[in-house]
Amino acid sequence: MIESPCILVCSIDSKTGYCFGCGRTREEIGSWMAMEPARRRAVMADLPARLETVERKPRRETRRSRLARLREENGG
Questions:
Q1: For 45-71, what is each residue's pLDDT tens digit?
Q2: pLDDT-derived band at 8, boundaries 50, 70, 90
Q3: Phi/psi at 20 (nearest 5 deg)?
Q4: Which one of 16, 19, 25, 41 has the fewest beta carbons within 10 angstroms of its own beta carbon?
Q5: How far apart are CA 18 and CA 50, in angstroms?
Q6: Are 32 and 24 in contact (CB under 8 A)?
Q7: Are 11 and 19 in contact (CB under 8 A)?
């Protein structure tokens, strides 16, 4: 069995490119099964630091939070 950091929260942070759930990039997620075990271990060692850099957001944006974000982005 291949170890995976996936926690089924599959959404990519647009700023960092890391998954909110596991911290991997799209490329790493897509090639995970084909990766050499040493490469997977190296990626997994980096994940805690990566997860510190993603913005924590709810998985689904509510209408209220979306409107507030849009107001903020548009200067008030």
A1: 999 999 999 877 645 666 777 788 888
A2: confident
A3: -60, -30
A4: 41
A5: 7
A6: yes
A7: yes
